[in-house]
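[job 4417] fold queue: 2 targets
>>> target A
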Amino acid sequence: MSVLKRSVEDAPLNGFHRKLAVYSSGGPFLDGYVLSIIGVAMVQISGALQLTAFWEGLIAASALIGVFLGGFLGGWFTDKYGRKILYLVDLIAIVGFSVAQFWVESAWALFAWRLLIGIAVGADYPIATSLLAEFLPRKHRGPLLAAMVLMWFAGAAVAYLVGELLLSVVTEDGWRWVLASAVVPGALFLIARSGTPESPRWLLNKGRTAEADAVIKKVYGPTYSIADLPEPTKERSVSVWSLFHSGYGKRMAFITLFWTCAIVPLFAIYAFAPKVLLALKLTGDWASYGSIAITFLFTLGCFVATKLINRMGRRQMLIHSFLWSGIALLLLGMFPDASPTTVLLLFGTYAVMIGGAQVLEYVYPNELFPTEIRASAVGLATSLSRIGAAVGTYLIPISLTSLGIANTMFAAALISLFGALISWWLAPETSTLDLQQASSLSGNTRASY
């Protein structure tokens, strides 16, 4: 009895897919790790290198600046030279730059190495997510791409644990070991990634048909071939400049706007949670445990969103995520003198509900652009989102001082509700489409383009 063979888009999830999902999460994990580890080490660094306030701020922001620079550059190189080679070279760079921090003797040198680490980490977002998206069957693409967001929080948590442990054990120059510790997870992900094949979609797009066919047979089985991979439709000439005009320009505007609306309040509140809670009159144990609880709820929100992403659909999840998180922030602004329980309940609601928008930051950019410019689109979105993160983080303490907590919450609510409006206007539904259909301008994505 013969068995009907399905397209690779409908193939069952296999061991290769699961391993690739874990290996690809290295970028978000290392992002959370390197951005958080500097906070643990900064107290010792300031004394050892005699840092001024200017250099403290610049070094703390250096990796974030690097992510901004590395996102688009990494995406462009990935689309031009392939996913596989950049997939390995980038992690080698992260490992090497992390080790180099151990021997720095000046503020300038530390800034330079952390800037380079940030560039490498930023480049890994488009490299890893585009490779993963191009291998995953449509049913599992959304959940597994979304789950990568959880790895940022995991990286941040591990950084705090490792940093505190090393500082307690190594009394002299412990900060050097703390900063260089990023080499361990970087090396582990590097070893795991070795042997990962090139994306057959990228190979096919470059005319390397035989290689693409060999990869498909290796990953999906000998009964599959390039005939089972949805063929690219050359609607028009597509280059990186397509991100700035015509149909793909509108999609890029949607990605940029919704990602910015999602990340500005979250990064700002996450970075200054104790200060924000203090402004809301939460002191003592309420403030300490409240910060921990909010961090946990951010993670919980992302986890729940990964489980619901196919059931709810991308569009409805994004709209509801912005809407209800925005209402929670609005209520915080309206009732800044509410009881501690009410304040934490509203903050918790925001933290859980914004998870839907957070996980879609990796899903939509990979689905809405074709193979030729997919990594470039993810990289550009990554870079632009860091502008919002930096601005929001910088303005929070100023806003709390000059505008007060109520108006600060109103501003954050306005950003989230604007995100809901943008999502209602522009967000497409792609959950039932294969990658070729979702990225095609003529595809039935039910978007208002």
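>>> target B
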Amino acid sequence: MAGALGLGLLLALLPVVSASMPGTVVRLNKAALSYVSEIGKGPLQRALQVTVPYFLDRSGEVLQPTRIQILNVHVPQFHLKFIADFGIRLSAAANFTFKIFRVPEPLELTLAVELLADARVAQSSIGTPVISTSYCFPLLGRSSDFDDSNSTSRALLVPVQEHIKAVLSNKLCLSVASLVQELNVHLGTLIGLNPVGPESQIRYTMISAPTITSDYISLDISAVLFLLGKPIVLPRDATRFVLPQHVRTEDTMATVGLSQHLFDSALLLLQKAGALNLDITGQLGSDDNLLNTSMLGLLIPEVARQFPEPMPVVLKVRLGATPVATLHPNNATLRLQPFVEVLAVASNSAFHSLFSLDVVVDLSLQLSVSRAKLQGTTSVLGDIRLKVASSNVGVIDTDQVHALTGSVFEEPLLKHLNALLGIGIALPSVVNLHYVTPEVSVYEGYVVISSGLFYLH
């Protein structure tokens, strides 16, 4: 698997699963190729360390087997570039050091090799990226020995060199092909589910063949969210998401575009899972939470009449309506419309409904990326708006209730919501791949993440 990591990072952000919306676009740019070229030298060197079979010396009356060992492979140059409408071209320079175990003394020689290979990038039948080697050619240079004092060894040198070159001509391309196959196995792991919550997951899939230019490779991705094993489907259709060309990508390794549809699906999942619901319970004698019947009784006489002794009050916050995310240039907002039932705890521990509220909360949404997850933080925009939906305690002055319930409602709601958004949602990635110094930009109807990459070995 180590050999796959070099080229593997080329497509490390390629996602996997179902062929519909919501839309995600991943672009890997020239800067990603430069990074892969640097960290890929080690895996390539190990892949090229092939086994050389014994050389059979036929110059005498008896065949003399001679063992040959590759002592070292050094790759000083490794370069990758995009081939438009095809895939990736690999070019590398490698220096081989061999040891020839010849009596009376072993002999060392070096051989310079230039390696050229073209790899096609396509879409597999299961929605994963697949790479295949279509062309490979090793150009073998002249060899040189380190010790020319032994005439017997020198007489053997020419046929040994030819033997080595014949072996390398055959085995080096097989090693590259094997490296690519390991890579395909590695990329196949992208089809696994990534947890979003205790009972929810997200899975990515390529929905079409990649678009490849001389500057980048771009992949259209479907992201499917699951709750209890069932896909989340929005009640409306969405057009296919296209990452606009004006989004600058030249100076970053990876560019990930996330559509409005993805945010809508994620919020629908949270709403269906009940993750946004919460109970806020008042405590008697608490300075931090004034939710009790005595405080409400000062504003609503009927509450004081029904509960002459102070009892705790509970706010049951339920989101029947799906939260709405709005994406405008440099501005992401979130609207929640919870239904809040105000309950008093009676002396027998039963709940007694006092009244209920329709609430509208507008929030500023700040997005960030940690490792390979998109996270969010919210803060309240303006005033929380309350409207009495029903009452078992007579007429209620909304303004007065707002002053009490609003203050004890806002902080727990934000704490709960930010804890959920802080868990994050997995972005397209592979195991051990992290986003480095990511920048999140909000546009009209979509979000763009521009980031470097780091593979943790």
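[job 4417] complete. Note on B: The chain has two domains: 30-190, 191-455.
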